[in-house]
Amino acid sequence: MTTKSDMGEFIAKAYQPKGPVVLDCQVKNIYYGDFRAVRDTHIPIEKNKVTGFIGPSGCGKSTVLRSMNRMNDLIESFRFDGSIHYHNNDIYNKKIDPVVVRRYIGMVFQLPNPFSMSIYDNVAFGLRLNRFQGDEEEMVVQALKRAAIWDDVKDKLKNSGLSLSGGQQQRLCIARAIATEPDVLLMDEPCSALDPIATRQVEELMIELKQHYSVALVTHNMQQATRVADVTAFLGVDISQGGRTGYLVEMDDTKKVFEDPQQELTQQYVRGEFS
Amino acid sequence: MVYDPFKESSSSRTLSAPPSSADYLKDSLFRFFAYFCALSIIILVAYIVIELGIQAYPAMEKHGLGFITGTTWDTNQGIFSVLPEIWGTVYSSLIALFIGGFFGIGIAIFLTQSFVHAKLELTFRTIIELLAAIPSVVYGLWGIYVLIPLLRPVADWLHETMGWFPLFGTELSGPGLAPAALVLAIMILPTVAAISADAFRRIPYRVKEAAYGMGATKWEVILKVMLPTASSGILAGLVLGFGRALGETMALAMLIGNVNEISISLFAPANTLASLLASTFPEAGQLEIQALMYAALVLLAITFIVNVAGLAVQQYTMRKFEGKK
């Protein structure tokens, strides 16, 4: 059933994707300096699906997600060993500029981080960056509507994005990320600062987004994973070698992961026995 | 005794206790001390202005507003007016602000946006902060013996080839606006750089992350996101630098030429209010001293106006970019 690596470490059974894969993430190892943060994690992100990442704190789910658009390159000690194939190209190929990767693979962060500029300019930022030639205003309004914040801000588009409340800021950031219609959207616990109503709206947005794009979602909220994720990857923490190294335990259709998990660890986690 | 109606009726196990009378006393003492410090500054400023006003009053009565519109300072005839000095003060400071601001902000970006290794950053920072520790008179000497000889061939060439251009309209005969403004620029550079660098450092990491996450290049991140975010802090640095340039005395008295003329040319000698005060005071008679006090008051007014205007612009950018009321 399971395989072991040469060093006798557990390696999860490979998930067999049922549809086309847009982002094939094969992590051998991720290091921060000497610290081995993640090992042996193979997560294919399927096209037009929401792929959920769940697991206890420190299991490296955010690290893996951030590797998918090379956000971790900002951290000097970061070292990636493995490959992430996106449209037949390894995004860690030396010839590929991370800036180009990030234009196609957008990201929403855990904490709201709007720019100190007007609400309108925040959303138009990506459009201007990508030299969008069409009707900018229409795209901005559309993005704000899809991010479920249009009604809150329609009368104050010229106000600073920072004048909004935390939950509104996060939805503004989602609008900013989806305005350029990125091919893949990475969401790192996007709802952790939102109230239940806004959370529900963002979840609906994710389901709508996957009609055209692919979404990878890190979440601490298991109900959220069952509500929106088509496929779920469960990552665990290996403390056997002193450090805390995250690794993939199990990946399968969400229903299967939650109702009939194959690994003991997954069972315990989805039953809420530890987190 | 401190009033505490809760102790009696609370659980007998509770360790909660009200602050003691001594705690309250410390609280009041500290508050008094803070008020005292703040108030003493206000009183000091008021005292300086009033004292200056009293000393300058005879001159104010005698010269009136003509003092700031006239162009002559003649001790023998007793005609005193400071328009050329006002012009020289503002003009030299503006040039210095322009040059010093440009390089100061550039240095701040260089130091904070991970262009160099952290250790090298610290070295650069220390060197730049060292610039602020050099005494004004040393800058003056350096200007006379190094900068002016260096500038002369450049100035001559500019004047010969582009003499029709008003900025290069005269020859550099030695001291003049250009060397004075350049030295001023170097003097305000550490102020602008340090305060701007702090403004950049205050930007939360997640803002930078968001900008890179949108697929912006380093240049786009700095120009389109970091600069607007830091703008209110940068403005504060520029205002402080400008204020320092307006009031700078020793280096300017040595370099600007002390000639009461209004000229747009960068190479013409000029004068500033501070330099007029410094160079005229030692040999001034009573009437002239009164006029000098008036000039000091004018300088104070200019500095005050600049600071208030700078504060207003800063508040405006804060509202616009950061949504703060």
UniProtKB/TrEMBL annotation, chain A:
Keyword line: ATP-binding, Nucleotide-binding, Transport
Any GO MF annotation of the entry: ATP binding
Record GO cellular component, one term: membrane
GO annotation, biological process: phosphate ion transmembrane transport
The keyword ATP-binding is annotated on this UniProt entry: yes
Domain ABC transporter: 21-270
InterPro entries per UniProt: AAA+_ATPase, ABC_transporter-like_ATP-bd, ABC_transporter-like_CS, P-loop_NTPase, PstB-like
Keyword Nucleotide-binding listed: yes
Signal peptide: none
PROSITE patterns per UniProt: ABC_TRANSPORTER_1, ABC_TRANSPORTER_2
Protein name: ABC transporter domain-containing protein
Native organism taxonomy: unclassified sequences, metagenomes, ecological metagenomes
Automatic annotation (TrEMBL), chain B:
Biased composition (Low complexity): 9-20
Membrane topology: Multi-pass membrane protein
Species for this entry: Methylophaga aminisulfidivorans
Family: Belongs to the binding-protein-dependent transport system permease family. CysTW subfamily.
Keywords on record: Cell inner membrane, Cell membrane, Membrane, Phosphate transport, Transmembrane, Transmembrane helix, Transport
Domain (ABC transmembrane type-1) ranges: 86-310
The protein's role, per its UniProt record: Part of the binding-protein-dependent transport system for phosphate; probably responsible for the translocation of the substrate across the membrane.
UniProt keyword Iron present: no
Region (Disordered): 1-20
A Pfam short name: BPD_transp_1
GO terms for cellular component: plasma membrane
GO biological process, one term: phosphate ion transport
Keyword 4Fe-4S: no
Lineage: Bacteria, Pseudomonadati, Pseudomonadota, Gammaproteobacteria, Thiotrichales
Name of protein: Phosphate transport system permease protein
GO molecular function: phosphate transmembrane transporter activity
Entry's transmembrane regions: 32-50, 90-116, 128-148, 177-200, 221-242, 291-313
Subcellular location: Cell inner membrane; Cell membrane
